[in-house]
Specification:
- The protein has 24 helices and 8 strands.
- It is an alpha/beta fold.
- The protein folds into 3 domains: 218 residues, no CATH class; 127 residues, no CATH class; 126 residues, no CATH class.
- A 6-stranded mixed sheet has the order 4-5-6-3-7-8, covered by helices on one side. A two-stranded antiparallel ribbon has the order 1-2.
- Strand 7, helix 23 and strand 8 form a beta-alpha-beta unit.
- Helix 1 packs parallel to helix 5, helix 2 crosses helix 3 and helix 9 packs antiparallel against helix 10.
- The chain is globular, with a radius of gyration of 25 Å.
């Protein structure tokens, strides 16, 4: 009876807190990432034309098919975000069932449910959370011996995001360790074949190369490493990341501890064997957790563009926590991870394209997401209300964020530049221009403005020029002194702000 009450109280607490931290953001817009609007745009094209063109290759077909159904039914950003939020709630149920035999199941479920990076994406129209729900369903079914349902769930996860196919590695190893060797090949073939079906329309139309190709990064190896370590630290926040590393190190040292200094010095074998049984019990769940984390960290370092690429590893890392941390340590770690949603230490300073390392107190990622969503809506208004001079071009960086479903500005497709223009005015909005276009437009007397985020980095990395080296006015966005707060003085200024 007490167990049922505990589960009921846990469920009510999670639903209340999750709703509190997500619902205010769900109804603002699709999200602050470019991918959050590219998916709905692809879905809208599918509804209008009947032909599927993925928002980006290799594609997220199952997610965009579902978005198309929502779009066809008249759904807007609130409807697509609610679909993601419901997927998040379902994923909590699957996670709880995975850890239900653990003594720390309640605190682990609470931690998973309220992890800021999970909550942030639970209110954003991107495929991470629906895909994760399918992955957790697959593992839950696998632990119960329901191989077919597990394979179907993993196939759906692959349909949401192709990198979820990497779970074939830990899940197949789980089957081998669980004595289910005869059905491993069935699980692999069924999951792969069923998951591949979602990509058939893309392959038939564009060929297989776009599906299997990995786009090269414009950054150097060193720049990619810096980005990888920054995004890795921002998964749980610098404070929680440092605490997690410290707790893991202490656990290893405790597990490897010998009875005397002589024992430590005398035998490396004792050291190695001491870690494994004392620190980590290598049961099937532990092996799956270790492999899942290692596989996705490896994939992340290959392409570290977004912290959210690590989301699939999060629940499997949590499965490992009881192996090397006691309950008190897990509670402390939970509190510090949850803090990242409201307060964090920002490590990225400087300006777009000219970053530097800083240690600065900052809004947590949930608060920042809410603020940025509000800012984006104000910027969308400013596109139509700012007193832009004649012959103006604005480089926005992530153009669809500000133009898709923009009901504040009368925009029409531009026949001259790759973007949009204000109806009846010589004012253009583009993502980023190449160096030659910038020089040509300036020579023709155009005024060029550039948003302070995204656009400068893209110009530097893709086109090899720094906008600050030209007579281009920088418009600050997504900050306390964003240009939309003082439209008249900002757009009439020729200097950088």
């Amino acid at each position: 009876m007490n167990g049922s009450k505990n589960v009921l109280f846990l469920s009510a607490s999670i639903i209340f807190l999750a709703s509190l931290f997500t619902l205010p953001r769900i109804f603002i817009n699709y999200g602050v990432e470019l991918d959050a609007v590219l998916g709905p745009m692809a879905a809208e094209r599918l509804v209008e034309t009947g032909a599927y063109t993925p928002s980006r290759f290799p594609g997220n077909p199952l997610f965009e098919y579902i978005l198309a159904l929502i779009t066809a039914g008249g759904g807007n950003h609130a409807a697509t975000n609610i679909f993601v939020f419901l997927s998040y709630l379902i994923s909590i149920v699957f996670f709880f069932r995975i850890v239900r035999e653990y003594e720390q199941r309640h605190i682990l479920t609470f931690l998973y449910s309220l992890t800021p990076i999970i909550l942030l994406n639970a209110a954003t129209t991107i495929d991470y959370i629906p895909g994760l729900a399918c992955v957790l369903a697959s593992y839950m079914f696998l632990k119960r011996g329901a191989v077919v349902f597990s394979a179907l769930s993993l196939a759906a996860a692959v349909g949401f995001r192709p990198t979820n196919a990497a779970f074939l590695v830990p899940f197949s190893v789980f089957m081998l360790l669980s004595g289910n060797r005869k059905r491993v090949h069935v699980f692999i073939l069924f999951s792969f074949a069923a998951g591949a079906l979602f990509y058939v329309p893309i392959i038939c139309r564009f060929g297989i190369l776009p599906v299997i190709s990995v786009p090269p990064s414009p950054l150097s190896v060193f720049q990619n490493l810096l980005r990888a370590f920054y995004n890795l630290a921002m998964l749980f926040g610098p404070l929680a990341t440092a605490l997690l590393v410290l707790l893991a190190a202490l656990a290893v040292l405790r597990g490897a501890g010998a009875s005397s200094e002589a024992d430590i010095n005398s035998s490396a074998k004792k050291y190695v064997l001491g870690i494994i049984p004392s620190c980590i019990k290598l049961d099937s769940d532990t092996v799956v957790g270790i492999l899942a984390v290692l596989v996705f960290v490896f994939l992340f370092f290959m392409h570290p563009d977004e912290t959210a690429y690590l989301i699939p590893a999060v629940p499997f890392l949590y499965v490992l926590l009881p192996r090397f941390l006691n309950k008190k340590s897990i509670v402390v770690l939970t509190a510090v991870i949850l803090l990242h949603g409201f307060f964090t230490i920002e490590l990225k300073g400087g300006s777009s394209g000219k970053r530097s390392v800083v240690f600065r107190p900052s809004h947590g990622i949930l608060m920042r997401d809410y603020i940025l969503r509000k800012d984006i809506e104000e910027i969308k208004k400013a596109l139509g209300t700012a007193e832009w001079p004649p012959k103006t071009v604005v480089m926005t960086g992530d153009l669809p964020l500000y133009t898709y479903k923009n009901t504040y500005a009368e925009l029409e497709a531009s026949a001259i530049l790759p973007g949009f223009k204000l109806k009846g005015r010589d004012v253009y909005f583009v993502s980023v221009l190449c160096k030659e276009s910038v020089e040509g437009l300036l020579a023709e007397g155009y005024r060029i403005y550039v948003f302070s985020e995204s656009a400068p980095t893209t110009a530097i990395n893709l086109f090899g020029y720094d906008p600050s080296s030209y007579d281009i006015t920088v418009l600050k966005v997504l900050s306390g002194d964003s240009f939309w707060r003082d439209l008249r003085s900002t757009v009439s200024s020729r200097g950088q702000l």
